[in-house]
Amino acid sequence: MSKILIIDDEVDLVTLLEEELQAKGHEVLAAYDGQTGIALSKMQPDLIILDIMMPGRDGFDVCRAIRDDVLCPVIFLSAKQAEADKVRGLTIGADDYITKPFGLRELMARSEVPVYQRRGQTFEAVFRKPEHLHKGTGGHRRWKERAPYETGV
Q1: Which region, left, alpha or beta, applies to residue 145 given φ > 0 means left and ψ of -120 to 50 means alpha?
Q2: Whole-prediction pTM
């Protein structure tokens, strides 16, 4: 499917994310420090999930170091919750910023969107499949889970 690089020094978190992403069919590369993350980024992943507070090179430094060579989206996943940190991350090249603690389902959804956008697929093509439709009366269809209505009129 796609190659996702996780750079985070929290082993349990990396293991959790790795299992979830692999279950969705992704190939996962894992680095537990910034220097290893920079080296693995040369494998041209489709997405990087990057922590900020790591020993040695922090996530901000890693992002700056790889941005000229790696064109894939970068999602910061960090315990740093200050607006200044979020703005700094986004201005040095991150595409998204999620604070810890986080919802696993939200992270999984946010990690899917940029991967599919890079492949030219739309949100609807990936997430809105026919099995997610309810047939209504009068030619109406609606998505499950509070999604927009489509009319057959």
Answers
A1: left
A2: 0.75
